[in-house]
Amino acid sequence: MTDLLAAIDEHTARLVSDARACDDLSAPSLCEGWSRDHVLNHLARNAEALCRLVGAAVDGTGETMYASPERRDSDIDDGVGRASDVVVSDVEHTAVPLASDLRRLTADHRDVVLERTPGGPTFKGGMLPFMRLREVVYHHVDLDLDFGFDDLEGDLQVLFIENELKRQQGVDGAPSLTLRSDEGDVWTLGDGNQEAPVTGSRAGILRWLARQDPSGVRAETLPDLTPGL
Fold it and tell me: Which terminal Cβ of the chain has fewer Cβ within 10 Å, N or C?
């Protein structure tokens, strides 16, 4: 089983190293409408938000991840335009208390229900380490700094693919299909009914599921994924 906390530490260090070597954080990221600067500010504020959720799970503070969607967006925007070293240091420094806080979570907190915003979507305390790892890895890819899903460890590729399939499965209108990786994995979505499977490397399949980029998969007819995930 993947040690999520160790993986968070490792991938945070890799992201920070790549971001520090970047000479243009104002360039567009792979997130529509966001620069690399926006992505990094989001990661820093996300770390703080997850610390609040650990407090809610462990200490019963009642805090939510964000006060509101609008406050989340404005906090990101407020940090954009700072000097590059300040932005990268913000990501690095906010990750430190989060790493410590995530280690406070135990099996007793796994089913504690937490809120993204007051009265908004909920998730359970046991998901917090995975949520942070996904943010760090996916947004490292989004920085467009020569790190891609191909550079990800195989067990993490599988972990993220299975999570993306679960997310698709939970939404009305999700396609039914079979996925076969070049590495030998087989997954089904829905009842798996499809004349021909979608095939590709694990990285290509993940890139399609996570970012709707079909460049790494093959199929006679590529089904449409459920949008808005």
Answer: N
